[in-house]
Amino acid sequence: MNNKPEESLSEEKRSLNFIEAIIEEDLQNNKNESRVHTRFPPEPNGYLHIGHAKSICLNFGMAEKYNGKCNLRFDDTNPEKEETEYVDSIMEDVQWLGFQWDKEPYYASDYFDQLYEWAKLLIRKGLAYVDDQSQELISQQKGTPTRPGIPSPFRLRSIEENMDLFERMKNGEFPNGARVLRAKIDMTSPNMHMRDPVLYRILHAEHHRTGNTWKIYPMYDFAHGQSDYLEGITHSLCTLEFEVHRPLYDWFLDQLIDTTYRPRQIEFARLNLSYTVMSKRKLLELVKTNIVNGWDDPRMPTIAGLRRRGYTPASIRAFADRIGVAKRDNVIDVGLLEFSVREDLNKTSPRVMAVLDPVKLIISNYPEGQIEDLELVNNPEDLDSGIRMVPFGKELYIERDDFMVDPPNKYFRLAPGREVRLKGAYVIKCESFELDSNNLVKTIYCTYDVETKSGTGSKQPKIKGTLHWVEASNAIDAEVRLYDRLFMDEDPSGHKDQDVIAFLNPESLKVLNGCKLEPMLAKAEIGQQFQFQRLGYFSVDKDSLKNNPVFNRTVSLKDNWTKTKGQ
RNA sequence: UGCCCGAUGGUGUAAUUGGCAACACGUCUGACUCUGGAUCAGAAGAGUUCAGGUUCGAGACCUGAUCGGGCAACCA
User: Fold this and answer.
1) CA to C1' distance (Å), from A225 to B67
2) Which contiguous run of DSSP H or E holds residue A479?
3) Strand B: which nucleotides have any atom within 7 A of a protein Cβ?
4) Which of A5, A8, A20, A86 is the Cys-Cys partner for A318 at CB 3.0 to 4.6 Å?
């Protein structure tokens, strides 16, 4: 596990976040035998995104830090939305991030029998009843946050009748929506969740694991706390919107369990990222409407998308570490995520030469037909990475951006009469250039000075600019995909009157063909990562073909020139 | 107009029993550089939403207000 940034952060005396403070207090008080057992409880109804990554790092992180355990539990109580495809992707993503759950993955559906028994216990205790009313009626009677609700006419049904009806619900005697099982709590509670919440609904649907054995399914509230209890969870971390559910979480446990052991729900603020949408519903919509190419489209904030984009597990963990946890709403600058990958990739990825927008450069005084192999350092940040040979010759490609016919004086690159260093090769001087019929530069003619050869050359003049290049006859062609933020608005979901679609960035994907790469890249394998010198970090996409590798730009290098240029 | 949360530089997070606000990203200088990257050195930027109160002393405690978020799915 590459966790250098994490290490360096934790070496300093880091103050505790509010969850760590609670855990340490519990530990001191010997609460729950001083165990720490957390869980990551996704619903398998979509792919995990960077917001889940925060939760994963938190839950598994707390377990690691306090020598505890962390379960993976699928919260699969709604068969209509859940699929095994999602279960698989979630397991893959959690492991890819570098975490391993305790024992086997668990499922709320593992507890359906126990939950059913508990529901009957509630009925026997006179704390639950079957309501025959329609959804609309129940919702009307619920009142509003400012107005108390009124009791259902079925609230006073006998225990026997409730038991009978509930069993028949279970047996599938009634159609969807005909009846529900409700807790009998308080229809006037200021907390809407305590106004006789629904415990079970009738759903004639096939469940991804239990198939057709169940005709009734528990609601989240009736399943979550009890599942925590059954798994021995001590600290049940969830996001802020569940804060008002906590009294109910505790109420069920108090009614159903008589041990002193209790899991405790603690809420934290979910992650928001600028220029990004995070709701599963909206992400699903992007996928379904083909605005992006699937859940793992590199523009998606999904873990699968980030992975395909070239983000590393270590960089995401470092990111999660840096953003911290608290209870106030927050919007993290995507720049911080980008910083985290750059930081990681800078130390680990080999440098290579790639010209994305090639223009031909001819060195007039270089021997015709001569090719020489030059030694290039693979990664100056990691001397163990060694060197490689790169062919150099009379005809090269350089980046179109690296030549200007009439440059401003702060331009350190090539221009008529100016000198520049070719990375790892020679200093060249531009003598002339040729335009095509569209007035675009077609060929640049230079001369070189043999004496200036990198490393061995006797002349090492001070030269401001260094360009990357690729020798023409040995270059391989590639497709390069440049990604930009998917949305142009800082807070695309923050507009009540407009859908996020209105803020899509039309230039979020630019596909470049005919890019020229140094020959060793022909052997690059899917998922491999490189720094294209002076351009950014790129990783080999799964769409790559034998003779047409495809590279995704993970993130560009920081670039002061674009900044100066823009001023 | 009910209940529950929250409020600290541009953005996040910190300040352990109250002792004159720290760290990271970003921004701006400068050095260095065969990546306008990295690295290194430095700077600017908040007096902690507001008003009262407790105290020798409050970002921390109390009261009230303001602002923001959440809660009325047979979703999670």
Assistant:
1) 34
2) strand A476-483
3) 1-8, 10-16, 24-28, 34-39, 68-76
4) A5
